[in-house]
Design brief:
The structure is a single chain. By secondary structure, the protein is an alpha+beta fold. 36% of the residues lie in helices and 26% in strands. It has a 5-stranded antiparallel sheet. The chain starts with a helix and ends in a 5-residue tail after the last strand.
């Protein structure tokens, strides 16, 4: 089948528009992911992860981190989180989401997000229970 030059140009133009549309749609979908801002924050600390790597351990509307973890001593977690550069206000009220991220060495990054932004974030060594701050590489 022989195509004329005009038909070829039209087909190539349509194909280019489809590719551009797919790229825009892909960017739009990844920006609308509920964890994209949190993943972006952790990437700034040198972690390689996708938005889908988090485990959502719970969402708690109109509450505080302190209320969620009532009876727990949070001083070590707050100190590590502050050292990592996070606000760490465990008494700030809002919609709280608890996300967990398992690292290759089996340590766990614990993220408490308040109203979509990282509020309290630290690493917990599973082997020893030690709590460490996130550090930028």
């Amino acid at each position: 089948m022989n195509m004329t030059k005009g038909t070829r140009i039209i087909l190539l133009s349509v194909a280019a528009l489809l590719v551009a549309g797919a790229l825009l749609l892909n960017a739009s979908i990844s920006e609308s992911h509920p964890y994209s801002y949190i993943a972006k924050t952790l990437r700034e600390y040198g972690y390689t992860l996708d938005d889908d790597d988090f485990y959502n351990a719970g969402s708690f509307p109109d509450t505080t981190i302190q209320d969620i973890l009532a009876g727990q001593d949070l001083s070590e977690a707050v100190a590590a989180s502050v050292e990592g550069g996070f606000p760490s206000d465990i008494n700030a009220r809002g919609d709280i989401m608890l996300l967990l991220l398992t690292l290759e060495n089996r340590d766990v990054v614990t993220v408490f997000a308040r109203d979509g932004k990282v509020e309290l974030c630290f690493i917990q060594r599973i082997s020893s229970g030690e709590i460490l701050p996130l550090t930028k590489e």
